[in-house]
Amino acid sequence: MGSTMTTLAPVLTKNWDQADSFTRTAYERNGGYQPLRKALGMEPSAIIDAVKDSGLRGRGGAGFPTGMKWGFLAQGTGKPTYLVVNADESEPGTCKDIPLMMADPHVLVEGVIISSYAIGAHQAFIYVRGEVLHVIRRLRQAVQEAYDAGYLGKDILGSGFDLDLVVHAGAGAYICGEETALLDSLEGFRGQPRLKPPFPAVAGLYGGPTVVNNVESIASVPAIVDRGADWFASMGTEKSKGFGIFSLSGHVTRPGQYEAPLGITLRELLEMAGGVREGHELKFWTPGGSSTPIFTAEHLDVPLDFESVGAAGSMLGTRALQIFDETTCVLRAVLRWTEFYAHESCGKCTPCREGTYWLKQMLKRLEAGQGSEEDLSTLNDIADNILGRSFCALGDGATSPIHSSIKYFREEYLEHFSHGGCPFDHAKSTKWGA
Amino acid sequence: MSHFPEGSPYDVETRQRLEQDAKDIIARYPQTRSALLPLLHLVQSQDGHITQQGVEFCADALGISQAQVVGVATFYTQYKRAPMGEYHVGVCINTLCAVLGGDEIWESLSEHVGVGHDQATEDGKISLERLECNAACDYAPVMMVNWEFYDNQTPESAKALVDDLRAGRPVPPTRGANGICSFKEASRVLAGFNDGRAHEGVQAGPESVVGVELAKEKGWEAP
């Protein structure tokens, strides 16, 4: 551990405790839409530079530098440029964008307007998953309020800049969180990923240059414009700048949303959250959702930034920290995640479509205690044939729980075989269990 | 053979209303086909599920083939192939919720209601669905009714919730509108039509603000 303890740094979550935080009145009372006025007085390229200089990296999991993504936009294509916000939050464990849009939709709307101005888009979309009715209501109301105030529409605040923003509800498909599948879905097709290149920056929505950014990334833009790139970069680590929302869930005393500089550790976050639930100890956890290889108690002090988590064998992902204590059967957890990937595989490419199917079949058999150590090699082998061979990251993600659980919990798999079934009492893992 | 039940033909008045709605939806998009997902939500708001009538309506509205509509409608889990209940009840059974008790909730609820995944009761009141992660993991185990959040559930609370819904007793979501709307009404919101309820309910649940409250208590701020 470092000598000084990292503390929380609420920026995006700062006003969530105010009862009317989702209204324009509250947002403006807290200084909202002032950054927009400032931005409209800046050259668009200066905003892109500020976002580049801030070091902001995509908050949707991949961590690609946001300003650089904007800089890749094809110029002079003769086609309109689009901004599309990926609000299809569906990665198991990830639960930050939904509360953000419910409590403070205006920060996203303001981020969309500033970002669109920066990249020269006159049409933007928020693609939000369809299974969150009230969030969709709140987003639409915020957009309407922004139109009413002249923040959207023609000649925004007299700047001459025009922008229309549409809130588009999905219809239930995890794969639409993949940016090109999202674009296909937004165009009215099945949500299946596209071959890259061309990347969306060159040929995205309707074949036009398109930026697809996560909710939290875009929501971070107003603060960067307002307080400057240096301010943002003063938080976090050398290559993972700024703050992020860390979502603690599972066997933890006070689960919830904790916004902190990147580089904070799980040990520090757990201390703030009252520790693992009383009378129990940490067994395994995901640093960034189910698609990131699991960690164990030996990783409590890994700084939660892109580089450190990567060096320790996983990925920062979406900072979705799912905590499981010693009552949890790791095989059961992995089977359930695998069933999820098999269910959500879009079927386009063979390694993912067939591989997740076979992983599921095998894990079901192994959980029932019918297996041998040789099966673990087969599992790893199937996963090896998905990883890096799939069309998109869904297939890669499906292999993370497999590889990492066998690496850290080989003995537990074998116990299932010698025991002839699951040696755990699942009732003990429940919220009301002992 | 059709992928969806036939459904009853729209009468003239209904068709005119749907056609006006479709026009409004299509007008939002630079290219008309982008309206397909909202249009499917729209016909579901009329029929309670996707019907052959609805498929034809979408195809006509967009000038695409019925096969193209079916190909999309069968891809997304929110489009239902059979009538769902007035209250569509989901139980998250993805890993974290399952481990924290989602499996126990599903088992007891399914037995209590007497139907399985994507099935509705005979009286058309309740349907059940095994849900994948609904982005509320800090509130696990999570349930959804007509896509509104019911947080921190137990087998007992789940059964009581469904009993209340059947009996017509008010059971507002934990984080959502003050009262639950019907599955059809929810589908209409998804299609893009406001029901004027955005201001209702809490801005955030307790778990969402646990960090900001701790920061205030400790005097922690961003620089």
From TrEMBL, chain A:
It is an enzyme of class 7 (translocase). Residues 331-376 form the NADH-ubiquinone oxidoreductase 51kDa subunit iron-sulphur binding domain. It catalyses: a quinone + NADH + 5 H(+)(in) = a quinol + NAD(+) + 4 H(+)(out). The keyword NAD applies. Its EC number is 7.1.1.-. Gene3D superfamilies: 3.10.20.600, 6.10.250.1450, NADH-ubiquinone oxidoreductase 51kDa subunit, NADH-ubiquinone oxidoreductase 51kDa subunit, iron-sulphur binding domain. Its cofactor is [4Fe-4S] cluster; FMN. The keyword Iron-sulfur applies. NDH-1 shuttles electrons from NADH, via FMN and iron-sulfur (Fe-S) centers, to quinones in the respiratory chain. Belongs to the complex I 51 kDa subunit family. This is NADH-quinone oxidoreductase subunit F. It comes from Actinocorallia aurantiaca.
Automatic annotation (TrEMBL), chain B:
It comes from the Bacteria. The keyword Glycoprotein does not apply. The keyword Iron applies. Pfam families: 2Fe-2S_thioredx (PF01257). Its cofactor is [2Fe-2S] cluster. Keywords: 2Fe-2S, Iron, Iron-sulfur, Metal-binding. Belongs to the complex I 24 kDa subunit family. PANTHER family: NADH DEHYDROGENASE [UBIQUINONE] FLAVOPROTEIN 2, MITOCHONDRIAL (PTHR10371:SF3), NADH DEHYDROGENASE UBIQUINONE FLAVOPROTEIN 2, MITOCHONDRIAL (PTHR10371). This is NADH dehydrogenase subunit E. It comes from Actinocorallia aurantiaca.
